[in-house]
Amino acid sequence: MKKFINSVDDLVPDSAAGLVMAHEQLLALNEEPLFIHRRVLKQDRVALISGGGSGHEPLHSGYVGVGMLDAACPGLVFTAPAPDQIAAAARCVDAGRGVLLIVKNYAGDCNSFQIASDMLDMDHLTLLVNDDVAVENSTHTAGRRGVAGTVIVEKIVGAAAEAGADLYECKALGDRVNASTASMGVAFSSCIVPDAATPTFDIGPAEMEIGVGIHGEPGRQRRPTMPADKIVALLLGPILKDLQLAAGRELLLHVNGFGGTPLIELHLLNKIATQQLREQGLQIKRWLVGNHTTSLEMAGASITLTALDDEMVTLWDAPVVTPSLRW
Amino acid sequence: MKKFINSVDDLVPDSAAGLVMAHEQLLALNEEPLFIHRRVLKQDRVALISGGGSGHEPLHSGYVGVGMLDAACPGLVFTAPAPDQIAAAARCVDAGRGVLLIVKNYAGDCNSFQIASDMLDMDHLTLLVNDDVAVENSTHTAGRRGVAGTVIVEKIVGAAAEAGADLYECKALGDRVNASTASMGVAFSSCIVPDAATPTFDIGPAEMEIGVGIHGEPGRQRRPTMPADKIVALLLGPILKDLQLAAGRELLLHVNGFGGTPLIELHLLNKIATQQLREQGLQIKRWLVGNHTTSLEMAGASITLTALDDEMVTLWDAPVVTPSLRW
After folding, report:
1. Short-list B83, B12, B97, CA closest to B48
2. Residues B155 and B205 in one domain
């Protein structure tokens, strides 16, 4: 296993410290229990908290800041955060208007956030993200997995919270964005979890896993590698089937890298996906291309579509200042 | 070779088109000859052009925009752009105050930019970046290589051009930033050039290349892998020896990923480097952590230090709106 690492135990807290050092005017670190929060806390606004296993960076810690998350709770690599991290983060960032807990749909995360929820005295609601259309149930999940669409949900709901939406409005908006969002990914290689030190799954030199999960969970099928335009079509098919879009519908297209795929390939995928969607009579109104929801060093990518309405476009365009999304 | 690709010939132009699609309000594409430029061209300002082989994305195309580059000319993967790309880009973005050509020090790039320079009628100067302290001469280079410090040069000089500095001031500032900047990298794995389809170099399962170039060129030594803090010390040693900094000197620290290393590890490197530099009595005033100057999917990272003065800090902090650097 070749990684920049001192010890498996120190990786997550030391990496969080390194992130906060690089953004010292924007972020602050709570070391025990571990969470990252906005240095200047919001006043009189709903607070947004997310978290999950580490190894998906920049998700979630890279999206803490103005107009997005108020705190992020990183668990060990691919392991849910502990409930006391979530509860402590909620107490830190609560500004009297309630706390929205944004949870990717994995059994461990749901369990930790549920226990944390029972510990909280302030108003709070939970928003579940389950945008992965690849499989209905998975290794660590009942129901669909939450993947790259989480960034879209966090951005749009974050903008609403920043503008003064109340807790129930934020939750309803988030549910609406999640229901309008569908994702599917493909992997060429496995990631290597530091604690395991070996690849999570084996894959042949000319194979790819269609519908892979962001922890290397199995997808729909193992296929021989093929040209990029055919791979894009394989991903868009199930996404479009799920969303059932009317012709002319306006979309956000998010091409997400899993960590080990170069940007030159992600931009190629973007061109191909944009063309294929336009050929089907759909309009791409906004784009996001890059490594946003990763699986450590996994080579591969996912495509996410969100069917936009005018409110979502306005909130997507609203200013955001975080380490990894900024405009 | 597992890559998202349709054909080797189409990769660079199609990827450039995908980048421009995702940033249609900011960027425009010139297809023949290929270059990317600001959609809204600067008026009455020095224009900045860079370029080089593809495969280092986001360098350079991801830094076209307000406050940085006016145009970028991508060559084939790891191959210098053709002179006519550079000359056409210069004619496109020239706003009557002259053009500064920013060139990483590789023989092929120097040659192409020199030929382009001979083709140009407007005032223009060339700024050479050679920040890599690993080796004095290399496979494709006479003198030191230009690597991740290029982003620092492009940002600071771009801000000066945006503020109205003349061509000679931009060139002198760029020379000063380059002279104040030193970098060194390490690789765990080789990249795979699409045209070659096999790794550029072989490396053992527990070896790393200290001082590697961004095309996989050999560095100073092949060493067994070691803990991250020892690797950071191996990189910082030659950098600090080169810069000869006085105690208390203010620095910009840039931890750059080569493409295949997860962000969680880059942030760990940032924490370690920041601590080691502080222990030597140096002050880190600004940070940049992420995949900025990559080598396709190479696993590895580099560290860059720039010794700052007050003008550089002001220019670094000035607004920038590009696909990959924005504040």
Report:
1. B97
2. no
